[in-house]
Design goal:
The chain has 311 residues and is α+β, with helices and mostly antiparallel strands. The chain folds into two domains: 101 residues, Efflux pump adaptor protein, beta barrel domain (Elongation Factor Tu (Ef-tu), domain 3), CATH 2.40.30; 117 residues, Beta Barrel (OB fold (Dihydrolipoamide Acetyltransferase, E2P)), CATH 2.40.50. The protein contains seven helices and 14 strands. A six-stranded antiparallel beta barrel has the order 2-9-12-11-10-13. A four-stranded antiparallel β-sheet has the order 6-5-3-8, with no helix packed on it. A hairpin with a 4-residue loop joins strand 10 and strand 11. It is rod-shaped, with a radius of gyration of 56 Å.
Amino acid sequence: MPRIRFHKLAAIVVLIGFAAWMATGEFSSVGSVAANKAKAAEAEQAKAPDAAKPKTAEAEPKAPLRTVAVVTPPRKTYARAIRISGLTEADKRAVLATRVAGVIDKLPVKQGDHVKTGDLVLMLAAEEKISMVDNAKQLVVQRQAELDAALRLMKTGNLPKLQLDTARSNLTSAQSQLETAQAELDRNEVKAPFDGVIDRVPVELGSSIMQGGEVATILKLDPVIARGEVSERDLGYLKLGDKATIRLVSGQTVEGTVRYISRDASSATRTFRVEVAVPNADGSVPAGMTAEIALSALPTDAVLLPRSVVT
């Protein structure tokens, strides 16, 4: 019994002591000491000089300052170049052919020869036709002599007017026969239709040829023509007489003038044909050569900017 009472008494004492400790409020400081120390450290760091702070901001590089200049760009009339691909071609090209069949009797030209308008290129054998021309010429001479005699007699009154009229009619008929014979002889000849160069002669002297057979090809290369196609957008910037620069695939550069601008677009490409005439007296520019054509467009008002502004 006395031991049991002692235990009860000890428990009562412990309970009273715990209640007294709770009443003091000291239990709330447990765990807050570390927090108070952290706050104190932060306060000390805030009071430290700027040299002690981490220099994160200063470590970042700053962008350099740029100088900006303001200028007023000038305006100027500018003619741009329209560049197109094209080919050179002859100003004129003709394939010469015979009008009658026969044997080639004369062939005074060869490939590369320069000829003038009316020069003989080929002649077929025509002995009978030549004989007919000679006979017609003699008849004209005879009829002219008869008319002269009739005129003399008419002046003396010894010739009726009817005989004089007959003499005049005979002369006219003889002249007509001569013209017919000469025209028939001319059909055996092939002559140059224009000044140019003989490019091809596919026949030989003494060979036979049918009517309409090809005997030669003649080209007119002065001027030589550079042709190309321009788009619908660029057509309005061109006009006849514009200057153009032609650069050949060989590297040669020549100057020319626009002589033709088509007004009918190609149904396949919707482009317009342009021809540039290039002086070619020495024949140095051949036909059929690839070329780059730079056409000078109509001038437009433009603002000039330095290249450094846009690059």
